From TrEMBL:
It comes from the Eukaryota. InterPro entries: F-box-like_dom_sf, F-box_dom. Transmembrane segments: none annotated. This is F-box domain-containing protein. Residues 5-54 form the F-box domain.
Amino acid sequence: ETDSPFRILALPAELISSVCAFLEDDDLVNIRCVCRVLKAHSTTAFGTRFFCHLIAILHPTSLAVLLELSRHEILSKYVRKVTISGELLGHSIFPLQTDMPSHLSLQKSIENSGLDYLILLEAFKALQNLEVVGIDVGSFHAAEEFGFCDHGVRCGRVQLYKENVGIDHNEAMGNSRVYDPVLRALHSANVHERVELSLMFHPSSEEDWPVSFFDVQSLLWTKSFAPRLRDLYSLGLVDSKWINTLMHSATDLRELHLQGDHDLISLPTSNKISQWPEFRKLELDELLLQHRDFVPFLREHGPTLEYLHLQGIGFPDGNWIEPLEIIESMPKL
């Protein structure tokens, strides 16, 4: 036995890094404050845990933080996913004791000037290990409302508001123009061929719902982005013809969640090979389905489906006998 102190700094860097990966969040942060050596050896655990996913909104403060992190010499290496949310201060996010007119002005100014697109362009160029880009209307502040469990860094949130904030579902949940600058920036940065795409749509009311969020028949979408679409979430009153065209353009979708108002949806099928060879999750709510499409769709994706949720589903013609027989035989469900 010896009374000499344990020399933790004498341990191999790889061992210290491995131990740090098992620490609780607070302990991991605290150990980085002890000394420079421990800070250096814990960087991999720190970056992997806290900076894998960055979330931003189209506000200059949020985008500035996103750009700063994307250019960070060390932390940028750990960023694998970036989500841009269409949430806006004064539209769906209402902080207390905040100078709302100035925020509204800032958000409008970067929209009019195109600065949001330029910042996103530089951020995407800088993130060399980026794998997934998401566009939605809820992950920055309303994540719990939409059931998002993916943790991430909310870029600029502390600077924008610190107290409890209200969510107004009667207002537009998000800025529908968010899709255009993000997609254009990805294409201009020439990273669209190596990143996967996750999209969510949520128009708030029938009066505000857009016929389309972007042109799904354009060459930019069909050639550059449709093959990279992996997850699609459509909630609420999205135009059924537009969402049908979007689904049929995708060639390798993995997850699909559609919620409508008894809209008629036609699921894509193919005669020779599966439309989506690695499709694993399907959620459908309050929709009408073409029976002649739904049955072959289930047959095609039965071998890969792991999760199936059907609620309020009806057929203009046909019944549930054959679909239920197929569902019962799915091996991974």
